[in-house]
Amino acid sequence: MVKYEEFESAIGLNWYEIDPNLQQLMRRLLEPEDFEWCEPELRRIGALIGGPIAARAEVTDKNPPQLVKFDRHGERIDEIVHHPDAIATKRDIWESGIAGPRLRREAARRGRRYPEAMATALNFMLSQAETGMLCATGMTSGVFALVRRFAAPEVREQLLARLSAERFEDAWDGAMFMTERTGGSDLSTLTTSARWDGTRWLLNGSKWFCSNIDAGLIATLARPEGSQPGLRGLALFLVPRWRGDGTRNGIHVRRLKDKLGTRAVPTAEADFVDAEAYLLAGGESSDAQNARDGRGINRMMEMVNTSRHGVAVMGLGIMRRAFLESAIFAAHRTAFGRRLEELPMMRQTLVDMVVELEAAAALVFAACGEGALARVLVPLAKLRATRGGLNFASQAIEVHGGNGYIEDWPLARQLRDAQCHTIWEGTENIICLDVLRSLSDEQVLGSVLSALAAPTGQGDALFDRARTHLSRALAEIREALMFLARSGREIAQLRARAFAHYMADAVGAALLIKEAEWELERSGDARKALVAQIFVNSHLVNSPMRGVCSNDRVVLDLFEPLTRYGDISPAKAQRFLAQQP
Ligand SMILES: Cc1cc2nc3c(=O)[nH]c(=O)nc-3n(C[C@H](O)[C@H](O)[C@H](O)COP(=O)(O)OP(=O)(O)OC[C@H]3O[C@@H](n4cnc5c(N)ncnc54)[C@H](O)[C@@H]3O)c2cc1C
After folding, report:
1. From-to residues of CATH 1.20.140.10 in the chain
2. pTM of the predicted model, to two decimals?
3. CATH 1.10.3720.10 fits domain 302-577
4. Most CB contacts within 10 A, which of 71, 161, 277, 493?
5. CA-to-CA distance for 513 and 450, rounded, in angstroms?
6. pLDDT over 90 (residue 302)
7. Which residues are near ligand 1 (CB < 6 Å)?
């Protein structure tokens, strides 16, 4: 069991070794051949993130990047100056393999594909320290994927080499500038223009939110001259920070945003002034016709879906950090002669947190693949984990009492950072609309319903109750979808949020049941079965009298194995399940 009372602080611990749920996910999701080489890396990088990277994150937050517009001769330079600790962390991230090519090359050397679950696990641990850093590395891998698929052959290899350089000093970051002053949700109004001068594309216009502004390669949307209005008139471009001749490209930084959080990453307002750009259209040449094929927005959305998953991981990281800090604090602090963790309502708070955390983790890790299922799991994961991060950071501050509200303690920053993630890469409303849109595709709907209906297990009675409630929920979800399909646009949009949350509840329950079946079969441990049932109770069951008159004592009596990850025998779990609604 995890001994929270032995820890003085989360910083300094190995964040892989103290996270049994992450270890379980890795054991389940990685093929044995991958687990063998990935696990030592997870342990090594878990110590790096929980140690120096986590410690430096506090320094970076207090010493955010600065914009230097001009050099001493008055020449425009628009340089971003980072604190040395931020640079040290960026280097660690690159060289350790959290980002950068190291672990991908190791997988290739072994003849294996680099597992998505491994990348997600590393990003999850990094997000517990500092989500702003993941913003930069996530966009770099997003731009890498765009270049690989859509860059013209004559520049592709050279750009990919920059984005995956072995040495930190040689590597270029990626970024993605879409939002303009007119808005980020509705991109149809974008006005940045693109002109083909016979040899190259030149971009002009202003971007309003530009994170990782000093990246080497910026993916952006612009409107080629003469193209149609609206979304279909947009083309996808890549703007390098440096022109081919080594001079600065036409990217003028107006100012850095004074942000509430995520201060590690500089977010700017910037103008493109005859900025040279490569068209990303997948064709053999960069001609004007390719730019007007109406599919620029679809290409951009490929990166957006990946980076939406990255933002879900950020939310999940904050959930985990908030839980860990709360568990440590509650194991030390006393009130009324008892440790906080012994007080009944505090037990409820911590059990609720650990259950929600495991449900969100199940969703985020299930969403890290590709294909039809990911198309809906990614927005669901973003919806759940980013709101979860915000709620958890707030709840953890409450657990810490007045201290939690003070910047000397680690949670005020987490709350400031968490507020960004519900907005980044699509606000909550936009994400809910996306869930509905994704399910209008028959293939996506089919794969979701069959994945959800799957948990049949070995017929173990431990799961009977949870499965019954899940089946009922799934029948309702199908009915709700049919209703929304025939109810017209206004009503469908009005109910999109309620629908998306219902869907996330059902998916979360189904995934937890699957995890619990796997764990029971592997080790005979029924802890996860209880976690699944508690999640089902709070999300899919209307308890009589709101549960006030329930005799259910699971939170009081099994607090320790639930929050410290101890084993629970099936017989014991069954006794407690009998008290459930
Ligand atoms: C710190 C930070 C960094 C960022 N970095 C980048 C970046 O690097 N690149 C980039 O391109 N953008 C970036 N953004 C911008 C971000 O993507 C946008 O803020 C976001 O997409 C929302 O756009 P908006 O701010 O224009 O809000 P709006 O689109 O104006 O939305 C305002 C409100 O209206 C709601 N709304 C909009 N449409 C609907 C609808 N159909 N139904 C119901 N409600 C709706 C939204 O949910 C929101 O609540 C960043 C934002 C932040 C805060």
Report:
1. 302-577
2. 0.97
3. no
4. 277
5. 15
6. no
7. 176-179, 183-185, 209-211, 259, 262, 267, 420, 423-424, 426-427, 429-430, 433
